[in-house]
Amino acid sequence: MSRAAIAIVVCLAAPAHAEDVTLDQALAAVASAPATPVPAHELASAEARVAAAGAWPAPTVRIETNRVTARLVAGVAVPLPIWGTVGAARRAAATHADTVRAEGTATLRELRHRVVLAWIVLAHTEDQRAALATDAQQAAELERIARGRLDAGAGADVDVTAAHAARIRAELAVATATHEQAAAAAQLAGELGWDPLRALHAAGPLPGGSVTLDAVRRGLPTHPERIIALRRIAEGEANEASVRVQRRPALAFEVSGSFADPTEPRTDVMLALSLELPVFSRIGDQLRAARAQTTAERARLAAGDALLDGELVATYRRWEAATERLMVLERDVLPAQDRAATLAAQAFREGERDLASALLAERDRAAVRTEIATARSDAATAWIELQLAAGGDPGAH
Asked: Which range of residues forms the domain containing residue 294?
């Protein structure tokens, strides 16, 4: 077997030594990916702050002495949060936890999106390498024909040289595609926390489907990004309420006792209520800041709604274009190019056409096959992007 044939066979057989990974398997592995626990930890922290927000203000212990009267005066003041301050703080913390929960859902959704795209890239590099390996086989066949014609006295040395250069070029393209496939496998492994040196093969069909524009637009009200914006508005309103109750005086109950007082043989106990007046706390400024933040979140929601709708329509049009391009290439262009290349090779074999015509037809066919591999990847990527823009989960293919 020639060196060229051996190289092609090795490239074609390489996927057999790689581990098959379907898209469903890759998405299932997201559950154990290194980035997956992060949102859960952030949510646990936010939920713990809800309980912490219910804490009462710290009591104050007072100890003093006098030179003439009581040698020891001890007292304790216990603040009484009876004006709704604790409840308002807990509601603010709870709405923040809701925001963190929505953001965590969006984070995991984005992780699944990256995994799907990495898997599609891996599948694309494999399709491209397979197409290029087939082209390399055909380039080697043209070189064999050229050498046979030269040996029979019906060809020229220039044809052999040109065919040899075409074959080397095709083998180089296969080698480059092999490296690109290894890089794509490492990217997917990195997203899932696997060994980046692990050989992976994207098994199974590419994701895809069909849907109308009206159908995908109906999902925009529940888009995860919109849910986050609504949660932030609710959080802003809760913060406003928490600041507003701080305008009320803080009430504290005090108990104190006087001991070892030479002027009073008995221990004297005093009870008192104190009010802490927030006259210098600039609550008005704090409230205006909280209201301005809530207003900004409402404006951000309105702008986000317009942006989400525009992105969805644009993504749908790109998906339509990618799907139509793939269909035309597979249905019309490739069969015609296959026939043209076959006829050109046959004509060269029979001496009716020169090698340049056969090489040009073969290169055109190789270009179409590579273009189809790219078009398949583009169509699958556009479908996943459309699901993401519509607020769906890219993993639900």
From this structure: 18-58+84-246+285-389
Residue 105: inside a domain, yes or no? yes
Asked, for residue 131, whether it belongs to a domain, the answer is yes
Closest CA to 258 of 60, 78, 71, 67: 71
CATH number for the domain that contains residue 169: 1.20.1600.10
| The three-state (H, E, C) secondary structure of 96-110, written as one string | HHHHHHHHHHHHHHH
Residue 339 lies in a domain: yes
Q: Under a CB-based contact definition with an 8 Å cutoff, are residues 83 and 248 in contact?
A: yes
Are 125 and 275 within 8 A, CB to CB?
A: no
Q: Which residues contact 247 (CB under 8 A, 6 or more apart)?
A: 278, 283
Give the Cβ contact number of residue 321 at 10 Å: 13
How many folded domains does the chain comprise? 1
pLDDT one-digit tens code per residue, 198-227: 899 999 999 999 999 999 999 999 999 999
Rounded Cα–Cα distance for residues 290 and 19 (Å): 54
